[in-house]
Amino acid sequence: MTDTSDGMGREAGDGGGTGYGARRPRLRLPRLGILGWLIAIIAGAIVVGIAVLAWLAWDFQVESARKAAADAGEVPVMADFAPGQPKPDDVLFRVAGSAALADQVIPDMAAAWMRGQGYGGVSINRSGQVIEVEGSRGGQPARVLVVSGSATGGFRAMVERRVEAVVSMRPIAPTEADRLSAFGDMNNPASERVVGLVPELIVVHRSNPVDAITTDTLARVVAGEITEWADIVSQKSGPIEVRLESPRRDGTAVSNLLGDREAPETAERLPDATAVFDDVAAGVGRVGIAIRNSSASGVKALGVGERNARIVMPDDFSVLTEAYPFTRRARLYVGSSNVDTNARSFADFVASQTGRTIARRSGFLAPAMEAVSYRPTSDAPQGYRNFAAGAQRMNFDLRFHLGSSEPDAKAARDIEEFVQFVAANSIDPRRIALLGFADNVGARATNVGLAQARAETVANILRQRGVGTGLIRSFGEAMPVGANATEDGRIRNRRVEVWVCAPPACPLIDLAAGPLQDTTPQARTLPAGVRLGPGPRLQPGDEPPKG
Q: Which CATH number do you get for residue 544?
């Protein structure tokens, strides 16, 4: 018999050896059969499908959240705007807010500011929501980041310290100002800068016989309650076709007019103001509402009157004095403490003459201070009309914080610039007149006193800066420019006009409620209970004083 052992008592080929020629065990797959394999393949496909669907759902949620944030004007969460992190070393400052400002005028201003700071090769890279203004100095690259979104998103990002400045087409809300208290009083002149003023126009075809419209009628047109021109003017017939600028996130004339109502589906939305103006120019039955820009041609802009107030045309003077109802302030907020130095420098640049020139190129009115001849309307008191015949009115009006005789941020800056204007033109203080006005809420005598108090407050501020006044008079609730039925209208009615009289001095005007017992600034008769000077800041829930 042949010996088949390996010399170690093991049979060759028994599978137990590990030496040369040993056989390894074979992997035996289960015998599933065709049906079993089919089930296994289907089960695997289901598992993979579930994983893919889960990933797609997660990606959809992320993308939806990103799109919702973009639609709401939020600042995107990305490396340059990381929560809880300082801005990147090459970023000079970041600004976010209203698309009406962030899309063009702020990048243009940032580019000019960088050049003024010695940066070369400055360019603007517009890509999506974030606009980069890039340059270099001393071989070091630098950027300013501008986010086109909404004021709400900008203020939220500033609270999170993801931006250093905010641009807005509306005033900062009290709750937003409270959350930004670490940056100081956001309503004071150091924090709030006015980039410029811009009107929202109500436009019709040039052949349309309508020249003016009231806000009440306009609201009914936009809401679809008035659909025929014959219901507005007898000389024109046919349907009214409404054209609106795509809704902006910071509130518009349309949103103010509609309130809780919705514009009907027949009101066509167009992408921008130019599209609105072009479309209205092409259709004789159309009316459009859009922010004015440099291409507002081929159409006729209507005068607008609020309830129980005069019709005001959207001319430059009416916009600069904010008498036109749909005038909007374009603002830059930087804070007055704990502020980035570059952001502060940029805010100063925005308020400079160079900054204003750039604003004007973008369609905003940024005034050069000027005294102009002014013809009062027929509703003006006779004394006012007589006075205006021999004087010139400054191209701004001073307005005040709600419930206070303290000038608001724009008024405070206008006063400072007026002091410079007086010095530059060597104006005798005896030729300066301050005329105060109020709303019609409350007793007439009280309103006269409140209007007088506002004018006196301005006179005191001017006096502290070395500028006296020759005449201080109140016209109370006369000549309203806004509807006393609305808070916005009442705010615009509480104002002080600044006039410059012909040499040698301003003539006297009787007080609206009757002649003063003493014509010197130190002794003026005011109604009982009225005091002069700034009123207290209102706390939440406080009722503002009337008038």
A: 3.30.1330.60
395-417 residue pLDDT tens = 999 999 877 778 999 999 999 99
Residue 132: helix, strand or coil by DSSP? strand
| 217 φ, ψ (degrees, to nearest 5) | -65, -40
3-state SS assignment for residue 15: coil
Instruction: Please tell me the pTM assigned to this model.
Output: 0.80
pLDDT tens sequence across 410-458: 999 999 999 999 999 999 999 999 999 999 998 888 899 999 999 999 9
Domain interval for residue 87: 79-191+334-350
Token pair recorded at residue 264:
């009907």
Provide the b/e sequence for 211-239 (b: ≥16 CB within 10 Å): eebbbebbbbbbbbebeebeebeeebeee
- CATH number of the domain residue 231 falls in: 3.40.190.10
Residue 502: CB atoms within 10 Å? 12
Q: Quote the Cα angle for 247-250-253, to 5°.
A: 65
Q: What is the CA radius of gyration of the chain?
A: 34
Residue 13 has pLDDT above 50, yes or no: no
Residue written as tokens 């009290």? 174
CA–CA gap between residue 302 and residue 203 (Å, rounded): 6
Q: In this structure, is residue 160 part of a structural domain?
A: yes
Residue 278 has pLDDT above 80, yes or no: yes
Domain count, the chain: 3
The label of the residue with tokens 């410079």 reads 420
